[in-house]
Amino acid sequence: MVLLREDSTKIEIQAIKAKKAAKRLSILSTEEKNQALTLLADQLEAKVEDILKANEIDIKYGRIEGYSEAYLDRLTLTRERVFDFTSGLREVAKLPVPVGDTLSKWTLDNGLLVKKVSVPLGVIGMIYEARPNVTVDATGLALKSGNAILLKGGSSAIFSNKAIFKVIQETLVKTAIPKEVVQLIESTDRTATQQLFTMKEHIDVLIPRGGASLIYSVVNEATVPILETGVGNCHLYIDREADVEKTLNILVNAKTDRPAVCNAVETAIIHLDWLEHNKQALIKTLKDHNISVHADKKAAAVIPGAGLANEEDWATEYLSLDLAIKTVTSVEEAIEHIDKYGTKHSEAIITENRKTSKKFMDLVDAAAIYHNASTRFTDGGALGLGAEIGISTQKLHARGPMGLAELTTTKYIMIGNGHVR
Amino acid sequence: MVLLREDSTKIEIQAIKAKKAAKRLSILSTEEKNQALTLLADQLEAKVEDILKANEIDIKYGRIEGYSEAYLDRLTLTRERVFDFTSGLREVAKLPVPVGDTLSKWTLDNGLLVKKVSVPLGVIGMIYEARPNVTVDATGLALKSGNAILLKGGSSAIFSNKAIFKVIQETLVKTAIPKEVVQLIESTDRTATQQLFTMKEHIDVLIPRGGASLIYSVVNEATVPILETGVGNCHLYIDREADVEKTLNILVNAKTDRPAVCNAVETAIIHLDWLEHNKQALIKTLKDHNISVHADKKAAAVIPGAGLANEEDWATEYLSLDLAIKTVTSVEEAIEHIDKYGTKHSEAIITENRKTSKKFMDLVDAAAIYHNASTRFTDGGALGLGAEIGISTQKLHARGPMGLAELTTTKYIMIGNGHVR
């Protein structure tokens, strides 16, 4: 128990140091921040062999643990992947700084000047799983937006994260940035995590990035405000008036381009009339792309080899080549299904009817809604928003891809001359 | 136990109905919403006697319960107070609707059109205490911004709230607005409250408005995202270079104008040099305005009748004519004290030195920061922001006074022509 207490104290000390460092960071110049980002990119490239060696240890343990190939793939670093994230850092260095702007400004009748200015959030707690690239991406976005960051990566990536973190620390001491702006939380016990989730005084926001169970536990246990990311049970509604070629292209792209990501489609909702007229083309497409179908009775009767979907299928983010198929007789029925099972991430409608698409876009409640386009575009880079720290599926503060602006808040500044009310 | 289960189910049914009603509300026209707001104002005025009679019962029970006079004052309705909040409704009817706007819009190189539009949050859970005016104010803001609202007022105001709610329901059935858009939660047991706090599926945001203990319990128990409001342990820093007349005017206004509100000052942090030069004027002012002083040793030695402040005083939102006084020898020391005890609401500095005020405004972390002005201006109306549903002391989503815009979120709408990634 003494160990746990010492450990708990350690996290609290880390958070307090982060808060102080954030304050010092907030008054540094953009140039100082950009220099640090560029230097960090240089240093990570120079130390790529060390990072890859550490990563090999994680992979070795991962194989012993029996992780899936998909999981090991997310965990694996290569020279190319490291250079991908260093070029990401260089991109972030080029983006405009999102803090210190006067967003609006007015003078009251009594002469009091009111300004609303953008400021950093303060201290970000980043909680993530297998991907070591988050250690670099999140560090870059936090630094640029003037925030301190506490990194709590998954234990499966601990050697990789430590190697990357070592480079970050060695770099920061050579710059104007206080090194406590970026800290790695190494303890993995329950008490430490609980503390991280509830240190409202010292941590301004938690960003969980990972699977449904990680996000669920953060949402349920945290009192620190959260930017919820990622779970995407996305739907593609194929309307009665959907163009066949567009439909099949989009279905294949949304399902098979990268099945393991959150913006992939998990359920196709198909209007019965469309299904009847286009079943042969659909069956061929599904077969050609090795898509495993879990269908309701009406669709299963038409699609050879389809399994029968149950309640769980409608709610599942497969993250694989599995696809649920639900048939409907109206756009309203499709919307009702999405209301019930969607995770408010990305939803698409294929139709040539503008009224139908308008109804869908007005009534579906999600971060991103597509008409005649693939859900795969829900991504900061793909939508032209710049680097992203995650995709918000909540409604408060940020919705959809979150970049630098989403890591800021505001302050009202009032300047008077003895003004009283 | 059966009763509790029936009761729990009732709240869930209310929330589901609210969600459906919100969807129907979201496609109504601005005119229909404004007509409903105006009609509601008319009807509340017509039924003012019924409302006042119901309020008398709350007051009677309140006296039996032994509530403080300040509490009873917040609970009390008069003809004038009712007409105040109906004129508030008419004001809200005149404000522009904050939803349906295209906030930004661009076309990607591949031709995909991207739009970011403002949309209602959905269902708001409003949790409040003694003030029956919140029942009307929150209803008006919710309707105008296209949101449904579940009202959970304090049991001490239940007769008043029910009488007001009756008028709301009788009015809504005469309009295009589904009456389930506004619902009163009458059950007061623990299970019902727990459900309200955790129905993430059906409720989009909880807004607690009331004392520190109410807000604490919501923050600690809720999994539904929160817009935290109101606790204001506000400070007035009187710098070495503070103008005496401005200082005393602002101190009196910020402490005594309405001591029971969240933007009143609770602690004066005084530079020792200023105190030494201006003690006579300060002592006279404090005495003339019946301000009870809880001071640190150095200030207590100078101010006759001052009690000695302890740790608790620095952290207390007195909401009375009590004032804590802390002495410092630099602006940095003042900022450190605010960092430790402030609630990130409103903080003020009085100084003629621009560099000192800039440092204070840059480094103090709060929703509203004042230079040579009273903290009493932190209010939607006073700052020219229109009606407010509360003052946010959190950093995510909204900071400071929250009006109609803060009751909205966004959606990305992408329009393609078969676009795939």
UniProtKB/TrEMBL annotation, chains A, B:
Record-annotated Aldehyde dehydrogenase domain positions: 10-296
Coiled coil stretches, renumbered: 27-54
A single cellular component GO annotation: cytoplasm
GO molecular function, a single term: glutamate-5-semialdehyde dehydrogenase activity
Entry EC no(s): 1.2.1.41
Family stated for the protein in its record: Belongs to the gamma-glutamyl phosphate reductase family.
Main function: Catalyzes the NADPH-dependent reduction of L-glutamate 5-phosphate into L-glutamate 5-semialdehyde and phosphate. The product spontaneously undergoes cyclization to form 1-pyrroline-5-carboxylate.
Name of the protein this chain belongs to: Gamma-glutamyl phosphate reductase
Organism: Neobacillus citreus
